[in-house]
């Protein structure tokens, strides 16, 4: 129930609070939450206090929030940046759109648009980000080595081959100054990373029970590495930990390169269908040599000779070749 207004005033609703306005000559004096304010009218005060629910979408993400009634383009851009700044940062140009029930699709916001009612808005990039083209740049790349552990040795097909290629990849990462993140699945029961793979220079070696590598410790490590856009992912098993890690990473806006000659499973059928599924989602299935040469990009690169020495001997042409 509204509170009783003082004589010569009227009670007005302002958001969640109540105020009173005195009538008389000149602008109305409005008392809101115990404070007298001189306004052009109660309507302006109510508008300033009102919040409108909106759904703000970018890429595959949608988040509900509230903005002031009458919010325009600049305020909405600030809201998008507050919610998705880490993702929007890789785009230089974008357009804002509103969902139209009449057309059943999104339409560009008209000039002078202001939020007047509940609505759904999205920000659309007008420029294809470099990462979506499949480029790899050392300064924006991190390597993920997934669960290459001793107890998997007898069970994983061609495990010796992927150990050899995995070590080659890590050596390349160390040469190029690329951070490496290593996980070990339940090491108490499955053992540590195999001795052939050198993880002493890794940024992080973390035990886990979750199948995906994207555990809190890994997310924290990623947030400490500025400008990361691409992840080079390899290890076991392709259809379990590799697949779930890749899907988690692209859900966070990162581009994923899976190294086919450093990734395997117990079953070649599981491996084959996992790689096919992942490729259809936009994940890049590639090879170790392609990754290393793409990262240097030029014979004049200062580390060309060192990378060349790594790949002089071709990666093993094992049974993995016909099962991609």
Strands, count: 15
Q: pLDDT below 50 for ≥5 consecutive residues: which ranges?
A: 1-37
Strand order of the largest sheet: 12-11-10-13-14-15
End-to-end separation: 70 Å
Anisotropy-based shape: elongated
Mean pLDDT: 83
**Proportion in β-strands:** 25-35%
| Biggest sheet architecture | 6 strands, parallel
Radius of gyration: 28 Å
What series of H and E elements makes up the topology? EEEEHEEHEEEEHEHEHEHEHEHH
Structural class: alpha/beta
Helix content: 25-40%
What's the number of helices?
9
Report on this model:
- With about 325 residues, this protein is an alpha/beta fold.
- The chain has helices spanning about 40-50, 75-90, 160-175, 185-190, 215-225, 240-250, 270-280, 290-295, 305-310; strands spanning about 10-15, 15-20, 30, 35-40, 50-60, 60-70, 95-100, 105-110, 120-125, 140-145, 180-185, 205-210, 230-235, 255-265, 285.
- The chain is elongated, with a radius of gyration of 28 Å.
- The N and C termini lie far apart (about 70 Å).
- About 30% of the residues are buried.
């Amino acid at each position: 129930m509204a509170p009783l207004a003082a004589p010569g005033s009227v009670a007005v609703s302002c958001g969640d609070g109540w105020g009173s306005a005195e009538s008389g000559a000149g602008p109305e004096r409005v008392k809101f939450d115990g404070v007298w304010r001189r306004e052009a009218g109660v309507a302006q005060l109510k508008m300033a206090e009102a919040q409108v629910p909106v759904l703000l979408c970018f890429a595959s993400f949608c988040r509900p929030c509230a903005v002031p009634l009458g919010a325009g383009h600049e305020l909405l851009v600030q809201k998008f940046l507050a919610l998705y700044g880490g993702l929007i940062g890789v785009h230089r140009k974008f357009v804002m759109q509103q969902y139209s029930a009449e057309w059943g699709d999104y339409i560009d916001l008209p000039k002078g648009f202001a939020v007047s009612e509940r609505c759904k808005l999205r920000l659309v990039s007008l420029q294809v980000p470099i990462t979506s083209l499949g480029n790899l740049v050392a300064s924006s790349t991190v390597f993920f080595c997934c669960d290459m552990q001793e107890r998997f040795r007898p069970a994983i097909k061609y495990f010796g081959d992927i150990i050899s290629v995995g070590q080659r990849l890590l050596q390349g990462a160390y040469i190029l100054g690329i951070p490496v993140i290593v996980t070990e699945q339940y090491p108490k029961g499955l053992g540590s990373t195999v001795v052939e793979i050198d993880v002493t220079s890794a940024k992080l070696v973390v035990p886990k029970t979750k199948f995906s590598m994207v555990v809190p410790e890994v997310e924290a490590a990623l947030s400490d590495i500025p400008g990361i856009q691409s992840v080079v992912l390899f290890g076991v098993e392709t259809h379990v930990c590799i697949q779930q890690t890749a899907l988690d990473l692209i859900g966070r806006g990162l581009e994923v390169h899976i190294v086919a000659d450093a990734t395997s499973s117990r079953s070649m059928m599981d491996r084959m269908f996992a790689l096919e599924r992942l490729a259809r989602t936009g994940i890049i299935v590639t090879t170790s040599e392609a990754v290393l040469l793409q990262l240097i990009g030029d014979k004049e690169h200062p580390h060309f000779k060192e990378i060349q020495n790594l790949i002089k001997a071709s990666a093993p042409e094992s049974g993995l070749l016909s099962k991609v």
